[in-house]
Design a protein that fits this description.
The chain is an alpha/beta fold. About 30% of the residues lie in helices and about 25% in strands. It folds into two domains: about 5-170, Peroxisomal Thiolase, Chain A, domain 1 (3-Layer(aba) Sandwich), CATH 3.40.47.10; about 180-329, Peroxisomal Thiolase, Chain A, domain 1 (3-Layer(aba) Sandwich), CATH 3.40.47. The protein has a five-stranded mixed beta sheet, sandwiched between helices. Strand 12 (about 310-315) and strand 13 (about 320-329) form a beta hairpin. It is globular, with a radius of gyration of 19 Å. The model has no long low-confidence stretch (mean pLDDT about 95).
Length: about 325
């Protein structure tokens, strides 16, 4: 029996309206506009409205993807929602999205691989569609990292923003899958390099003798930088080789928007043209699991990615985790 192929049917994103500029941050923490741009490439980031949770942003992005695909919510078989800070401990954010969208016939599952979460969701959807068990899988990356940012720590508070992106994957009876090659990985030995230690079973919420910063994002920036550049290069070269294509055949590289310096350093080592890399970190900052789907949707809507083009997606995150995917849009 021939396995169904995977098709990208629709994309969507929903950046919050509130803009937080470097100038505003420099008035509340010991930093400057120039320092932030030089170290990160970020000019501004988006902050979710006080009443908005990850599910609210995710619903808006998902609706746009469904509208583009002309698929009714009741036709969705499965929702995979990548997020770091969920609406609540449980139920999963995906269940709240399912309820609001009206996906009455779908399963719902949260995926937490930090900034790599959306790549993990895509890989899961890929296998589920090719197995023949699902026809329409909605993959969402949605984050409100501003709620777990230490706004007194200048090394991390300048980095993060909120946002959401979504992609609807669909089974196709036509030959040739959109997904060509990719890989996932993790190294738990480096888990402490990017973490938020509080709020789980180890340090439960509300524990009175705990520093409040324990419940916020903590990161060893230098170690993460070195890891990300090396892994970025390795993933790109390995994934292209798996698919039997050269990096010169890739129309657009869509990386996780972690830090502009990381993207530029990896591109230089790969000798990959900067004009063929989607960079929007200057507008949104690091939106974790929402980063790649937001950038991918932007590429589609701005015409930087056209049907038949090859796109290479790469991401790295807490865990440490990493992932890649080469696809033909």
């Amino acid at each position: 029996m021939t396995r169904p192929a995977v098709r990208i049917a629709g994309t969507g994103s929903s950046p919050p309206e509130r803009v937080l500029t470097n100038a505003e941050l420099s008035r509340t923490v010991d930093t400057s506009e120039e320092w932030i741009v030089q170290r990160t490439g970020i000019v501004e980031r988006r902050i979710a409205a006080p009443g908005d949770c990850p599910s609210d942003l995710g619903v808006r992005a998902a609706r746009r993807a469904l509208e583009e695909a002309r698929v009714d919510p009741a036709e969705v078989d499965l929702i995979l929602c990548a997020n770091t800070l969920a609406d609540q401990i449980f139920p999963g954010t995906s269940c709240f999205i399912q309820r609001t969208l009206g996906c009455t016939n779908s399963g719902a599952l949260d995926v937490n691989a930090a900034c790599t979460g959306f790549l993990y969701a895509l890989h899961c959807a890929w296998g589920m569609i090719e197995s023949g068990r699902h026809r329409n899988v909605l993959c969402i990356g949605t984050e409100t990292l501003s709620r777990m940012t230490n706004w007194k720590d200048r090394t991390t508070c300048v980095l993060f923003g909120d946002g959401a992106g979504a992609v609807l994957l669909q089974a196709s009876d036509k030959p040739g899958s959109a997904f060509l090659a990719g890989s996932l990985g993790a190294d738990g030995n480096q888990a402490e390099l990017v973490q938020s230690p509080g709020g789980g079973a180890r340090i439960p919420p509300g524990k009175g003798d705990v520093d409040p910063a324990t419940y916020t994002i903590q990161m060893d920036g230098r170690a993460v930088y070195k890891f990300a550049v090396n892994k970025f290069v390795e993933l790109c070269e390995r994934t292209a080789a798996q698919a039997g294509v050269g990096l010169g055949d890739v129309a657009l590289l869509v990386p996780h928007q972690m830090n502009l310096r990381i993207i530029e350093a990896a591109a230089e080592r790969l000798r990959f043209p900067k004009e063929r890399i989607l960079v929007n970190i200057q507008k949104y900052g690091n939106t974790s699991a929402a980063s790649v789907p937001t950038a991918f949707d932007e590429a589609v809507r701005e015409g930087r990615l056209r049907r038949g083009d090859l796109a290479l997606l790469v991401a790295f995150g807490g865990g440490l985790t990493w992932g890649s995917l080469l696809l033909r849009y």
